Amino acid sequence: MSDAQTRIDDMVKKNDIVLFMKGTALFPQCGFSSRAIAILDRLGATYETVDVLQDPEIRTGIKDYSDWPTIPQLYVRGEFVGGSDIMMEMFESGELQQLLGAEA
Amino acid sequence: MPMAASEIEQMIKAAIPDAEVTVRDLAGDGDHYAARVVSRSFAGMSRIKQHQAVYAALGGRVGGELHALQLETAVPNTETTSE
């Protein structure tokens, strides 16, 4: 694994819920990231975020890590869950509540 | 370079022949799209795999020249006979 892949792997495994996004939870820099944050906040989830705009290696590396071309990307307990569209679908169906609720 | 909605639809259909594809231009700027793709080939695949199949069909353009593609995938509802 390259250095970036190792760093990403660490972040994914170290945090129960981690969102790779553009910007921060307070100031998302993209509509899709903003939507992902809105969903997590709505569910009252406790999560970490990684701002890929601050780190070009992570920004490129995360796409290889998950074989997923877009950001944001949500990981729960080490597993890639999806981007903002999948988060929205899972939120609407109640699956995301279940997945995150297993935290509490 | 923005992509035309018809181009998105054609690329998806080329890779997933039975796909029923609906593309909407969200902002009217040829750069923000929403696509709904319904295909039997998605049966038994996770959501992640279904989306990855569509991204693969678009040949690496998603996240690059195609910045904003809201994506929804589904397996056809077998209980309806209209399709």
Describe the structure.
The complex is a heterodimer of chains A (104) and B (83). Chain A is an alpha+beta fold and 104 residues long. Chain A has one domain (3-101): Glutaredoxin (3-Layer(aba) Sandwich). Chain A is built from five helices and four strands; from the N terminus they run H-E-H-E-H-E-E-H-H. Chain A has helices at 3-14, 31-42, 56-66, 84-93, 95-101, and strands at 17-21, 48-51, 73-76, 79-82. Chain A has a four-stranded mixed sheet, with helices on both faces. In chain A, a hairpin with a 2-residue loop joins strand 3 and strand 4. The longest helix of chain A is centred in the first third of the chain and has 12 residues, at 3-14. By secondary structure, chain B is an alpha+beta fold. Chain B has a single domain (5-74), classed as BolA-like (GMP Synthetase, Chain A, domain 3, 2-Layer Sandwich), CATH 3.30.300.90. Helix content of chain B is 27%, strand content 24%. Chain B is built from two helices and three strands, in the order H-E-E-H-E. A three-stranded mixed sheet of chain B has the order 1-2-3. In chain B, strand 2 (32-38), helix 2 (47-57) and strand 3 form a beta-alpha-beta unit. Chain B is globular. Chain B starts with a helix and ends in a 9-residue tail after the last strand. In chain B, 25% of the residues are buried. The chains are: A alpha+beta (104), B alpha+beta (83). At the A-B interface, strand 4 and helix 4 of A face helix 2 and strand 3 of B.
CATH topology category name of chain A: Glutaredoxin
Distance between the termini of chain B: 35 Å
Class of secondary structure makeup of chain B? alpha+beta
| Name given to the CATH homologous superfamily of chain A | Glutaredoxin
Strand order of the largest sheet of chain A: 2-1-3-4
Low-confidence stretches of chain A: none
The CATH level-2 architecture of chain A is identified as 3-Layer(aba) Sandwich
Could you state the order of secondary-structure elements of chain B as H and E?
Answer: HEEHE
Radius of gyration of chain A: 13 Å
**Span of the ends, CA to CA of chain A:** 33 Å
- Sheet-strand content of chain B, in percent, reads 15-25%
CATH class of chain A equals: Alpha Beta
- Any idea of the CATH topology of chain B? GMP Synthetase, Chain A, domain 3
The side-by-side strand order for the widest beta sheet of chain B comes to: 1-2-3
